[in-house]
UniProtKB/TrEMBL annotation:
One of its GO terms (cellular component) is eukaryotic translation initiation factor 4F complex. Keywords: Coiled coil. This is MIF4G domain-containing protein. One of its GO terms (molecular function) is translation initiation factor activity. The keyword Coiled coil applies. Transmembrane segments: none annotated.
Length: 289
């Protein structure tokens, strides 16, 4: 019953409904380690499945960070929401390496396949596994970035993540690195950490210059280089998910813009029409009436 209520709240969670729904979460009975772990898993899975809403889920986790319950095997001690959540993020982050190994194994099986039907099946399995692993890893990276910006993760942990992504050397890891630095680079690139950041970017620039990896990855890396040169100001700011009011306002502005374009087209067409033709059309219109 508890998990059903949490799922229902998560499905409705938006910036507009945040305060109202958080009150409902606070009223839930989350008083055992089993219940707390279940809630953490539900929030985490939703957060990495919907990375465009990672800011909202991050804020939710920030509100629940101090929630603690007695440990199942040690009732005199407690375990908190924040610790369970960060353990979940770490587990998923380390799982990325396991995913890389699984994908590599499927590639070898595909190369060794002898029949057309087996090859087709393995190709489908490989594509499905790649898509799933990619979605989860990018979602997790974006969520980790939001947690760091909310001071739920330390700078030391983030630098550790960056280094591990560098050391993996795979294109998937480099893509995750680009997403992470785009999200938190501004918060890491402070005076005390400048030498580390300079070291990271020397490697990134070298990777681009030596044309390692696919052109897509090189473009992503170049975007991060340009972002740092632009003082971490995105060309187009990402303000997270939009409220209903923002969507309606933008729709109205788009409608007004379309009307303006139509008006300009008609005006332009009118200016190109001779007075004689206009008078003739007016006479025709009058006769029809």
């Amino acid at each position: 019953e508890l998990f059903q209520k949490v799922r229902s709240i998560l499905n409705k969670l938006t910036p507009q409904m945040f305060n109202q729904l958080m009150k409902q979460v606070m009223d839930l009975t989350i008083d055992t380690e089993e219940r707390l772990k279940g809630v953490v898993d539900l929030v985490f899975e939703k957060a990495i499945d919907e990375p465009s809403f990672s800011m909202v889920y991050g804020n939710m986790c920030s509100c629940l960070a101090m929630l603690k319950v007695p440990m199942a095997d040690k009732p005199t001690s407690t375990v908190g929401f924040q610790k369970l959540l960060l353990n979940r993020c770490q587990k998923e982050f380390e799982k990325d390496k396991v995913n890389d190994d699984v994908l590599e194994k499927l590639r070898h099986q595909l190369e060794a396949a002898t029949s057309a039907s087996e090859r087709e099946r393995l190709e489908e399995d490989l594509e499905e596994a790649k898509d799933k692993a990619h979605r989860r890893s990018i979602g997790n990276i974006k969520f980790i970035g939001e947690l760091f910006k909310l001071h739920m993760l330390s700078e030391a942990i983030m630098h550790d993540c960056v280094v591990k992504l560098f050391m993996n050397h795979s294109e998937e890891s480099l893509e995750r690195l680009c997403h992470l630095l785009t999200a938190i680079g501004k918060d890491l690139d402070l005076e005390k950490a400048r030498p580390k950041m300079d070291h990271y970017f020397k490697y990134i620039e070298k990777t681009v210059k030596e044309r390692r990896g696919s052109s897509r990855i090189r473009f992503l890396l170049q975007d991060v280089i340009d972002l740092r040169l632009n003082n971490w100001v995105l060309r187009r700011a990402d303000h997270g998910p939009k409220t209903i009011e923002q969507i309606h306002k933008e729709a109205k502005l788009e409608e007004q813009e379309e009307q303006r374009k139509v008006h300009q087209q008609l005006l332009s067409k009118y200016k190109k029409t001779s007075p004689r033709t206009i008078n003739k059309r007016m006479d025709t219109f009058a006769n029809v009436c």
